Amino acid sequence: MGHGKLNSKINVMVVGGGGREHALCWKIAQSQFAGDIYCAPGNGGTAQDARISNVDLQVSDFAGLSEFAQNNKIDFVVIGPDNPLADGIVDFMEAKGLTVFGPKKEAAKLEWSKAHSKQFMLEHKIPTARFTVVHDFEAAQKFIKENEWARVIKADGLALGKGVFVCNSESEAVDALTAIFKEGRFGEAGSTVVIEEKLIGEELSLLLLIDGKSVMPLSACQDHKRRFDGDKGPNTGGMGAYSPVRLFDKNKSLIEAQVIKPIEEALKNGSLDFKGMLFAGILVGLPASSDGTAPPSNNELIPYALEFNARFGDPETQALMPRLKSDILPLLWASAQGCLADEQIEWFDKASVCVVLSARDYPESSSKGKAIEVDDLPADVCIFHAGTQLKDGKLLTNGGRVLALTALGDNIEAARNNAYKAIKQVRFADMACRSDIALKEVGQCLST
Fold first, then answer.
1. Are 150 and 197 in contact (CB under 8 A)?
2. Among candidates 378, 356, 376, which has minimal Cα distance to 367?
3. Burial of residue 222 (number of CB atoms within 10 Å: 0-12, 13-18, 19+)
4. Tens digits of per-residue pLDDT, 65-122?
5. Domains in the chain, please, with CATH?
6. Which among 149, 211, 177 has a CA at the least distance from the CA of 341?
7. Which residues pair with residue 154 across a beta bridge?
8. Banded pLDDT at 234 (limits 50, 70, 90)
9. CA 184, CA 130: separation in Å to the nearest integer?
10. For the whole model, what pTM was predicted?
11. 30-51 mean pLDDT
12. What are phi and psi of 298, to 5 degrees?
């Protein structure tokens, strides 16, 4: 395949085995340009789809994956998860002559080092919470004691979405520091810690497709990170998401000016070299005052960047793919080839609500080997598999977040009703989910 636009069928391999990768494979399989599609290692859902072949290789086996791609004439490799990106899978594969979607190791540092990411935000004047970087327990504890605003504790490295502690008191913050520094809960990822100001506001997820020169925003999502209803309990990889988000629509020009434009500038002036998907976690809130007491009186909202991820979000991807009207392959290809400006992106005029069905004790423990039954689902409902496997023709649980069920509807309320109705068609032992995904959004829509 030459550079530039896609004009013929290509063989694709998606690297990863979660719900995000299943959703990507599902969408790629609908492309007019899709040849053979492989998923490595894949899961029970990709195994059940006749258009997709699972490859029994782990995401960390760069040599094995590259060799498979070369032997099977793979034209395009799409990287799903964060760990291989942080370990340099794109650099490795490109050195072997493969065309890959995803940022190189140095660019992915925006995700694998929170301290680096915060520094980038500061340098490019992207609004973000006040912060400090610490390397040992004593210094961190001292800082928390002396600064009442410092109540968010983040392990610097990758921690499967579980390395962030939003604390309400000094003692909670000290407990978080103890877990990271003294118990070593996140290993090497916790050798450096970012301590941040706790901001008040509402969050949204914005995925930005980047080709090294230009930025194409996808439709906004909102994720539900906490395990239990009412945003209670521990942080997880995500318990559900919905799209579109009114918070984004209402603050679109603000977000474009203060978050997206500085990223475009950084690409243009060479201070950011990035191709792939950049995921911005944004909190829209009132400005905190310089002494942390009360916000200034003009009440102007600010789009604070909370974090960057260097890949498609999970479960945001499961919420977005059914809404995407455009063929996804030319978009991903153009991003890798540096010609995104020639492409357009279109969305169905539908809302989506995605609810994650997890093991009851997730995130503390997962589910393995329990039978999963799924009855016939309506046409506007998709099930994306995450922690599943197909064994001797039987679908079994194999993880903490087992399935993600996404329903479409004319608006968020309809999509939400369709999703929770469809959940009744799915069964496995000790299945759990949050009952309030998108509920706040429905309430806001009804109250205006």
1. yes
2. 356
3. buried
4. 999 999 999 999 999 999 999 999 999 999 999 999 999 999 999 999 999 999 999 9
5. 11-105 (3.40.50.20), 130-197 (3.30.1490.20), 200-342 (3.30.470.20), 351-446 (3.90.600.10)
6. 211
7. 164, 194
8. confident
9. 25
10. 0.94
11. 98
12. -75, -10
